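FW: tagging you since you asked about this chain on Friday. Here's the raw sequence from the shared folder, copied in full. Didn't touch anything.
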Amino acid sequence: MLNFKVNEEKCIQCGKCVKDCPSQCISMEKGEFPTIINEDTCLRCQHCLAVCPTGAISIMGVNPDKSIDMKFEMPTAHSMETLIKGHRSTRNYSKKSVDTKTIRNLLEIASHAPTGGNSQSVHFTATMNDEVTDAFSKELFARVKNMLNESDPTTENPKIAYTRQAIKPYWENPADFMLRGAPHILIASAPKTAPEGKVDSVIALTNFELMAQSMGVGTVWNGFLTWALTDFFPDLAVQLGIPEDHEIGYCMCFGLPAVQYQRTVQRVPSKINLLESF
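HL: got it, structure written out here
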């Protein structure tokens, strides 16, 4: 049930909800209020609620009065530029865990990321304190050490070969290599049946990363951990509670940074293809 409702006292019959509906499942006859004509095609995107200038529309039981008014809350273009350009991958962390309320808030915000077909199917798995992360790290290192001992360097696959080479400087303190000393890990996954589950997961983590930076939380994308859970030890993913019918999009480490960067970097010009005709 969509539970589509129109507050007739607030509705000005502007028709914006009808025009902006991606699946064209809202109709409004002249002199009437908007109605749903086909629930089966509704994407549950809530565009109708978001576009209504008077907050007259409710869908799926959502109260428009509890939404954030974007008119007064949008960041400036300069602040967004600074956030994007100023982000650095954090590889030096405080040992203090991020508080639970902040983690839950970050994940809730990240869940608003766009998804293919509006599937909204991204699943987050996160460790909530450094004790859990440390226990996982020790198990992971034991497995990696055993894997490298049993693998033949002359015939091993490229990912194992890379791991062997990269872990050498960190052999005495492997957590710095595997999890960068972060107190938390975050894994984004999605059902294998989702239209673009792996891509959706990466987009959601990008939202998490940017929001985390704005709240003083550092992040780093972790390719090794992604390999470990997808290629090397998929049973570990199950132990972490990732559904078996999911595929992992990517993994990330996060926590309170032990360093503070003072300015943006300056990249070489991007490779851009601009078309003026076709």
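FW: Residues 153 and 255 are 35 Å apart (CA to CA).
HL: agreed, and The chain has two domains: 5-66, 80-255.
FW: great, closing this out.
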